[in-house]
Every structure is written in structure tokens, then in C-alpha cells.
Amino acid sequence: MPHSQDITPIVLTIAGSDSGGGAGIQADIKAISATGSYACSVITAITSQNTLGVSAIHPIPLEHIKSQLDAVFTDLNVVAVKVGMLADSDIIKVVAAKIRQYQPKYLVVDPVMVATSGDLLLQQSAISTLKEELLPLADLITPNLPEGEALIGCEAPQNEDQMGAMIESLRALGAKAVLLKGGHLECDDNSNDLLIEQENSELLSAKRVATENTHGTGCTLSSAIASYLAQGNRLHKAVYLGKQYISQAIAHADQLNVGNGHGPVHHFFCGHTNVR
């Protein structure tokens, strides 16, 4: 009789806690669960946060981050890992060392630097550490346009042609693939993301939804992709399914009435475990 862990797609999220529940660990767990996988978590920082913004960040002590990682990896059969907010260089180094030690099958890194509200979530000095230590280990990184700008030192793109001009510099970061998210190009009718693999690139398009409730979109998308990878989908299919899922979660966001600022997306819009 196989142990239940052998047949359960388990996804670990390594990220910060959002006390408002719309982003971070809380969004990750909701997205992983809603897309049909089992979520476990390692908390790297505690934020005081709501739909209006981030008022405080408290990093978790390094030894406790290590002990959380060891506890999860030595017991649970983690197939995919999603990494979000890491706060500072020392935390990035610890997480990268544990990823190298335990070698999960898939690693998705959402290089969280700026919240939807515009608050800075990653110390400037930590960006070079992220690029050196963690991004080369990733199967996929999922920067938005401001994060792409910070990672490669370019001006933020204003159109799809300028997104395309970033391809080679993003490939040079060392990850197997990059999903450059174009949601910040608000003049477009569509929300277009650029999936950049080593040999080719492809534009993934979805109709833009007019809503203020977009808190946690990046966390949600990267977690959904990790979930679909854990279920055995190839990268392209996992990204496609993740894009479908986040598009629907945004489209249904106004069904929720949460907070007075940028509300969350609707993780459980469909009432069952999958969008397929």
C-alpha cells in the first residue's frame, strides 16, 4: 500500500505572511489548494499588511527559517517549491542553500520586490544576492515589469516591443525559463505575459479585467504554476493553466468585498479543485 505522500502533489511555499490574507503565504496556500495540490509553508517574514499597504516587516530569525525548511523537507515529499518574499540577503542565502541540499523537482521563484500598493518588499542590497544565489536554480521566474527592470537594470517597458527587447537579458539571469508579466501595461486591452524559454518565446494573452481588486496576483499566479507542475504538467502547460486560473480569479474578484484598498482576487471562484 503506497504511502499517501506518494500520490499527493505537495507544493511548498517559502514566503512572507500577509496579515490581510490577500497575498503572500495566505494567497499561496489558497491558490495551491484551489488548483488541486497540497500546500505546506515556510514563513520568511511577518508583515503588518492590509489592502491599503504594508506598515511593517519583521523578518523571521535565520535559524527558525532553517528549522522550518528541514522539518518540511525531511518528512513531506515536496515536488514543487514556490519562493516569494525573502526580505534580505541572509534569508536568500539560507533558502538557496536548502534548495541545493534537498533538490526539489521544480522551483518557481516569484522575485517579490514591490507590492501591488507600491511598497518595497525586498531590500535593494538583496537583489544581487537573489540573482547570484537563487535565480540560477529556478525552473521558472515570474517577474512583473518593475521587477524585470530591477533585475536587469533597464527602463520599465512601455509596450510589448520593449518587453521583447528584455528577452536576452532575462535569459542571462540563468533560470530555465522566465514569465515576464505585462499586467502593468494598463493601456493595453489585454494582459499579455511573455514566456521566455531557452530556445523560444511566446506571448500569452488574456482579456484585461477592469477591477481594483488585484492584491496578490503575482503570488497567486506563481503558486498556481507550481501546483500544476507538481501534478505532472510540463512547464508550458503549467504556465498556460496558471494563466487561466489567475485570469478567472481576477475576473471574479469583485464578488468579494474585502478591505478599503486593493482587494484580493477570488481564489475559490469555481467552488471545486480545478479549472481544466
Mean pLDDT: 89
The assembly state of the depicted protein chains is single chain
C-alpha termini separation: 29 Å
Sum up the overall morphology in one term.
globular
CATH class: Alpha Beta
Give the uncertain stretches in residue-range form: 272-276
In the CATH hierarchy, the third-tier topology is known as UDP-N-acetylmuramoyl-L-alanine:D-glutamate ligase
| Main beta-sheet strand count, sense and barrel state | 6 strands, mixed
By DSSP (H or I, 4+ residues per run), the number of helices equals: 9
Structural class, by secondary structure, is alpha/beta
CATH homologous superfamily name? Ribokinase
Rg over alpha carbons? 17 Å
* Helix-residue proportion: 25-40%
Strand content: 15-25%
Number of domains: 1
Secondary-structure topology with pairs:
Elements: E1 10-18, H1 24-34, E2 38-50, E3 53-59, H2 62-73, E4 78-83, H3 89-102, E5 106-109, H4 126-134, E6 140-141, H5 145-152, H6 160-164, H7 167-171, E7 178-181, E8 190-196, E9 201-207, H8 217-230, H9 235-251
Parallel strand pairs: 1-2, 1-4, 4-5, 5-6
Antiparallel strand pairs: 2-3, 7-8, 8-9
In words, what does this structure look like?
The protein has nine helices and nine strands. The protein has 276 residues and is an alpha/beta fold. The chain has a single domain (11-255), classed as 3-Layer(aba) Sandwich (UDP-N-acetylmuramoyl-L-alanine:D-glutamate ligase), CATH 3.40.1190.20. It has a six-stranded mixed beta sheet with strand order 3-2-1-4-5-6, with helices on both faces. It has a three-stranded antiparallel beta sheet with strand order 7-8-9. β4, α3 (89-102) and β5 (106-109) form a beta-alpha-beta unit. α8 packs across α9 (235-251). Residues 272-276 have low confidence and may be disordered.
